[in-house]
Write a structure and sequence with these properties.
Elements: E1 2-3, H1 6-15, E2 19-28, H2 39-57, H3 66-85, E3 91-97, E4 112-113, E5 122-131, H4 133-138, E6 144-150, E7 160-167, H5 180-195, E8 203-205, H6 216-222, E9 228-230, H7 239-242, E10 255-261, H8 262-275, E11 279-286, H9 289-293, H10 308-316, E12 325-326, E13 336-343, E14 362-369, E15 373-381
Parallel strand pairs: 3-5, 8-9, 8-10
Antiparallel strand pairs: 1-2, 2-15, 3-4, 5-6, 6-13, 7-10, 7-11, 11-12, 13-14, 14-15
Helix pairs in contact: 1-2, 2-3, 5-6
Length: 382
């Protein structure tokens, strides 16, 4: 892996004086076109997401309850990332962030980051400083620091969604306003037809049932019909599976069906716009409170039992509970500028090592840019 070019190195170091070296290697590129983001954007996103991963991986979570450990991890990552962004010459409007609904540390929709105070150069940002906080606290693989920048991204409240990933041409044909357990197999058949595969060979990614059995009936319906249903054992982390669509990881998925946080969906849509624009999501907004009120439900019905406060938040942001949307409603085609993924704990699917004490002060991540270019990044700290 070669050193990053001098100008990028200098700019990254200016944002975090602890950094001594940045090494970079282009790992993947397509011929879809697109041009690299400006250096100030690349350097700020690399430095901020790397700092978030390092802080999260080294937060003091020993001998404390998991809930307190999660707060410490989120707090450390948020403080580290925001410190970097607020040293940068950017102005970022957060359009999607994780944590607000629980009062946890994290990015908040509507928040402004960066020291630029005027002008027209406002970027939209989507951030989840630690996706998989529970994994980070427990030292389990898969926790990631996620961030993306774009223009014209649509703000979302920190609520949830029910979404289906499919090839772009079939999205207009898919109806997700009916009961998920009713429409899941017909939708998967249509995806199979579009991809030229038998239904019983599809690989489908869905939500974990470890915390709540909400997806159990859906999983039981899909398993006999398709080739493989991937159910995460503990926490659902979507980006590595989405990157299988660009050949960056295995096993490659053909579809995704299930619930996802709205901020996580916004990042997923941005990721697809950069490296797999031939796929997208059809989705409807969903409740966070409903599943919490019905923790024993084995169907997805509680996803659509909104509280008055959730209805108010959605209406204020221009979202409706009685219509469906596509990922282009979150991230218009071609509006993503770049994204970064850094490992908090080991991420074996992407071949990234975690940033804990054993790393010796090194983080590993990916920078994803228009045209499908993916650069592997190592950041070394003193």
């Amino acid at each position: 892996m070669a050193e990053a070019d001098d100008e990028l190195q200098e700019m990254i170091r200016s944002l975090d004086e602890r950094i001594v070296e940045v090494r970079a290697r282009v790992a993947h590129a397509t011929v879809q076109g697109g041009s690299p983001a400006p250096l100030p954007e690349r350097s700020a996103l690399i430095a901020a997401m790397s700092a978030a991963a390092l802080a999260a991986a080294n937060a003091d979570t020993a001998q404390v309850p998991v809930a307190l450990g999660k707060t410490r991890v989120d707090g450390a990552a948020t403080a580290a990332a925001e410190a970097v962004f607020n040293r940068s010459a950017l102005r970022i409007r957060v359009t999607a962030g994780e944590g607000e609904r629980d009062g946890s540390p994290g990015a908040s929709s509507g928040q402004t980051l960066g020291r630029q105070t005027g002008g027209d150069g406002v970027l939209d940002g989507v951030f989840d400083y630690v996706d998989g906080t529970t994994l980070a606290v427990l030292g389990e693989p898969g926790a990631l620091a996620l961030g993306g920048l774009g223009g014209g991204l649509r703000p979302v409240p920190d609520l949830s969604a029910y979404a289906v990933l499919a090839p772009q041409p079939v999205l207009p044909e898919l109806d997700v306003l009916t009961t998920p357990e009713t429409h899941a197999l017909p939708i998967l058949r249509r995806i199979a037809d579009a991809t030229g595969k038998p239904l019983d060979t599809l690989t489908v990614f869905t939500h974990s049932i470890a915390g709540k059995p909400l997806h159990r009936t859906l999983v039981d319906l899909m398993r006999p019909a398709v080739g493989r249903v991937i159910v995460p054992p503990l926490v659902t982390i979507e980006p590595p599976y989405l990157l299988t669509l660009a050949g960056l990881a295995e096993p490659r998925i053909d579809a995704m069906v299930g619930s996802i946080g709205l901020s996580e969906l916004a990042f997923a849509a941005l990721l697809l716009d950069l490296v797999a624009p031939d796929h997208g999501f059809v989705f409807r907004v969903a409740s966070v409170a409903g599943p919490r009120r019905h923790p024993a439900s084995v169907t997805l019905d509680p996803l659509f039992a909104f509280t008055d406060e959730e209805e108010r938040q959605l209406t204020a942001a221009g979202w409706r509970t009685d219509r469906q949307y596509t990922s282009a409603d979150l991230v218009p085609a071609g509006s993503a500028r770049l994204a970064a993924i850094f490992a908090v704990t080991d991420e074996p699917m992407l071949g990234l090592a975690g940033a804990g004490p054993a790393s010796g002060g090194r983080t590993q991540g990916l920078l994803l840019e228009p045209g499908g270019q993916v650069t592997r990044i190592d950041v070394h700290y003193r």
